[in-house]
Amino acid sequence: MNTKTLSEIAEVEKVIVRNKEALLKVAEAIERYPDKFDMGEIKIPDPNNCGTAGCIAGFAAMLYPEATEPHYDYVSDRIWSFHEKTLAKILGITDDECVHLFWQTKAKNGSYIGFEKITASMAAATVRRFAETGEIYFDLKEGNEQ
């Protein structure tokens, strides 16, 4: 009988175990504070504010401060207030899933939806769907704010 935990097996096998609880916590926070959600604008960090846009990654970084630390990214020429790889590890998602959830706002048919069109309800629904099914896509029909 194998006495290893699922996390230990995943580490040995290099398998990513999605952290459903953490993902749902992100969706709940977005739903609780929809007026703070913003996928469209990146803000520069300052000592009194994390500076992240109120995007999906920004909400995750707020909930998991161990993933926050302002740093300069030479590729994008921007200052980010979260570490994508650390967030991916906390959420139990692959690098590819991280890109699709945080950066590539695609619809189910593969077309891109502009960041400015992503609403809090749409983002929360996308994160919930991903936690439950592993599918990452944004649906404009889920974007009707109450």
Briefly, what is this?
This protein has 146 residues and is mostly helical. The protein has helices spanning 6-13, 20-32, 56-63, 84-91, 95-102, 120-133, and strands at residues 68-73, 78-82. The protein has 6 helices and 2 strands, in the order H-H-H-E-E-H-H-H.
Helix content percent band: 40-55%
SSE order, one letter for each helix or strand: HHHEEHHH
Low-confidence stretches: 44-51
How much strand? 5-15%
The DSSP helix count reads: 6
Note the topology.
Blueprint (H helix, E strand, L loop, with lengths): L5 H8 L6 H13 L23 H8 L4 E6 L4 E5 L1 H8 L3 H8 L17 H14 L13
Antiparallel strand pairs: 1-2
Helix pairs in contact: 2-3, 2-6
Task: Explain how this protein is built.
The chain is mainly α and 146 residues long. The protein has one domain. Helices cover 40% and strands 8% of the residues. Strands 1-2 form a two-stranded antiparallel ribbon. A hairpin with a 4-residue loop joins strand 1 and strand 2. Helix 2 packs across helix 3 and helix 2 runs antiparallel to helix 6. It is globular, with a radius of gyration of 16 Å. The termini are far apart.
